[in-house]
Design a protein that fits this description.
Elements (H helix, E strand, L loop, with lengths): L1 E3 L7 H10 L6 E5 L2 E5 L5 E6 L9 H6 L11 E5 L5 H9 L4 E6 L2 H4 L14 E5 L2 H6 L5 E6 L2 E2 L2 E2 L6 H10 E11 L3 H14 L4 E6 L4 E7 L8 H15 L3 H13 L5
């Protein structure tokens, strides 16, 4: 079942033509069996939700973005840039009861679908703000322990994030020991350009985590030097986190360690 943000008396033929031509400019929902998907076009899935378990992290890249818990297992303040179907927002809100979660989404049509994806209502530790993520960050005065950037459009990483000033603001806002996590999606050349900016701003203090077979790369950059982390001790942390969250943290750590040895980080 395909559901669009359109009046019931809209011309279906015209809508189908725009969908297949790729000119339809609103997010839409596709329900298939026990799954609900958020799309911006018919070529790629933006978000997926199990109707049987709406709080599950259904896509591999969202599970790997939670690898920040290896380095900060009890964040108090989490900022998400990009809401989408709310997978990360819901998981952080439910699984980290000690954390205040703020999600910033610039597309009001995406926010209008929050109930369809079981995104909770705003309360004392959860809120969704309609704003440009880069602009919001530039005016933010209170620090964040974790910043998750999952702002992708049809072409890949949202253009408003494509500036070195954005990454400078990210590092400024992070608290001591803070972690920045970015989902690098889309064109490889564009991703490499973003990675170069992160390398410059964070002075090489980052690790990468591949998302096979989709080609996404998760980047975790650190406010402070990565040398403070004992990778041997992190292995024990990974086992504890796996029991707590049912995510394969030991494998995430193994992959990050391998990427480090292959010089995919500096």
């Amino acid at each position: 079942m395909l559901r669009l943000l359109e009046p019931s008396d809209s011309c279906r033929r015209s809508l189908w033509e725009r969908l297949f031509a790729g000119t339809y400019d609103k997010p839409f929902i596709l329900d298939s069996g026990q799954w609900r998907f958020l799309h911006f076009d018919l070529d790629a899935v933006q978000s997926a939700m199990s109707l049987r378990d709406p709080h599950r992290l259904s896509l591999a890249y969202t599970r790997k973005m939670m690898a920040f818990l290896l380095f900060n297992h009890a964040p108090a303040r989490i900022l998400l840039l990009g809401l989408g179907g709310g997978s990360l927002a819901k998981f952080c809100y439910r699984s980290l009861p000690g954390a205040a979660v703020t999600a910033v989404e610039m597309n009001p049509d995406v926010i209008s679908l929050r109930e369809e994806f079981s995104i909770p209502r705003d309360d004392d530790r959860f809120r969704v703000i309609c704003a440009d993520g880069a602009h919001y960050l530039a005016h933010l005065r209170r620090s964040k322990d974790v910043i998750l950037a999952d702002a992708c459009d049809r072409a890949g990483i949202a253009p408003e994030l494509d500036a070195i000033e954005f990454y400078q603001q990210v590092r400024r806002v992070l608290s001591q020991g803070g972690v920045f996590v970015s989902n690098m999606c889309g064109d490889r050349k564009n991703c490499n350009a973003h990675l170069s900016k992160i390398q410059e701003v964070f002075e090489g203090h980052f690790v990468t985590l591949q998302v096979a077979p989709h080609g996404n790369v998760i980047v975790l950059a650190f406010k402070d030097s990565h040398s403070q982390y004992d990778w041997g001790k992190l292995a024990a942390t990974g086992l504890n986190l796996k029991q707590r969250f049912s995510l394969d943290f030991p494998r995430y750590l193994q992959r990050m360690s391998l990427d480090r040895k292959l010089c995919r980080w500096q």
